[in-house]
Amino acid sequence: MDPYALLRATWQAAWNGRIVSGGSTLTMQVARLLENGRTGSWQGKLRQMQLALVLERKMSKQDILSLYLTHAPFGGNIEGVRAASYAYFGKEPKRLTPAQTALLVVLPQAPETRRPDRFAQAATQARNAALERLAKDGLFSSEAVASAQRRSVSPTLRSFPTLAFHSTSRARAENPDRQQIALTLDASLQRRLEALSAKKLDTLEPKATMAVLVADHSTGEVLASVGSAASMEDLNRKAFIDMTRAIRSPGSALKPLVYAMAFDLGLAHPETLINDAPVRFGNYNPSNFDGQFRGVLKVREALQMSLNIPVITLLERIGPERFMQRLQQSGVNPQLHGGKAGLAVALGGVGLSLHDLVTLYAGLAQGGKAVELSVFQRAPKPEARFTSRAAAWQIGEILSSTPLGNARLSHGIAFKTGTSYGYRDNWAIGYDGRYVVGVWVGRADGTPMQGAFARDTAAPLLGQIFQYVAPQHSPLSPPPPETLIVSNAELPQPLQRFEARDALKRAAADKPDIVFPPSGARLAASPDMPLILKLRGGTPPYAIFANGEIKELGLRNSEVSLGPMAQGFFALSVIDSTGRSAHAEIEIR
């Protein structure tokens, strides 16, 4: 603190009737910046003087100067000399020219009235005066000063670097005391994927966004993480939310783990036959996404087609609680709402993040070993296995048998898509011999999208990302020696066909039932509104009749449109493939 400067400032203010000069030392300015106090009141001055005295006792001059350089105002919302250097010149302070250095010297004295992007002339005059002072003090040569004074002040204000915004923000929050934080992110790949995902936003509805996560599953290092494809200013898409960490419904993306457990437990093999027919578990009647039933097919086909009934039938034998334990062993953190896990967890009835799903698939790619993904370089953890090598390889072999669009060597990439209830979340997760990639598409606020399917939104982007990540392509690992690779006929008898336990009540054993419209219903006639008939039970295919007239033959869906119906009374009948029937009489008026 400088008492002589205070006396001078007080005398000048009294003589001129206004403030002519300041009496604050650098330490007092730091005190004001730290407490964000006002400079015009004597009460504020006294507080700053007290804080300045404490700073002088506790800190060195170098530390006080460092505080000033990181908190000084440079116009607008810019604080600190490093931020100002990037905002006005786009580079680190150590790379500044004499002209640029002089401008930053004078800006904190009048940060608003000397802003070069608004008041270039005032900024130029103050800069030139500072250059002359610096030359007088011997810091710059007269030739350097003359050259610097001839340079015009740049009127542009640059945007701050926002590459990997969410990852860097989280890293800073987790390490507040570190001056420099090294991340595993590949800056070139990160930049390309941010540009690619931002371009893909044009194909989505206005409120939708997407997130991308890329990792090396052999090391667990995250190579790219796009928390939101939208720019940070896009409030409509809520780009400030890191959607790689947001908890959402995984849809069908968890089905591979159910099958891997079934292989491990000796319940099934990829060549095992399984029945895709109507089933009932108490009050739970699962159905396939398209409402159709395929009958008897191989387990590998059931996974490739992402059928719901076969995976639910397997999970009923495995047990939802055991499945949840295995999920946690893979390194993810599932979130259950409502307590106990039910059969619906296989279809997305559990909360997971994109980070969680990529972690799970990284473990499958590593032969069933749990992988910890991180943006920090860490020593590898001891091996923790959540499924066998053989089961993990079998899952990869099944998932890689379906071509992935936009990928150069699509048959070498094991991938799975998933669409959650109400089209809220579209997922595509895939891996090759080295990399694992995850894509999520949806609305950040959790509201449904308009009929968006993962195969149309997330899967094409997944293929493009693999073109960026692995242009040379690393093949999947060969099967471990213990893997049983045989045809269905060569399997042991218990594995040739999966049979549900006796306690399972199959709807196929019941006669068909017309769920809607119920018998006795009275419906309003509408030329634009078709009558939707909903069925339950029985054995497809079905035949549908209305007043004895054939409406549909060979139906395998549980729902069918009968088209607009005229006014009158109708006797509806359904007959299944075994000859059992159901009837309902309705009135349309």
Automatic annotation (TrEMBL):
In the N-terminal section; belongs to the glycosyltransferase 51 family. Residues 210-444 form the Penicillin-binding protein transpeptidase domain. SUPFAM superfamilies: beta-lactamase/transpeptidase-like, Lysozyme-like. This is peptidoglycan glycosyltransferase. One of its GO terms (cellular component) is outer membrane-bounded periplasmic space. One of its GO terms (molecular function) is carboxypeptidase activity. NCBIfam families: PBP_1c.
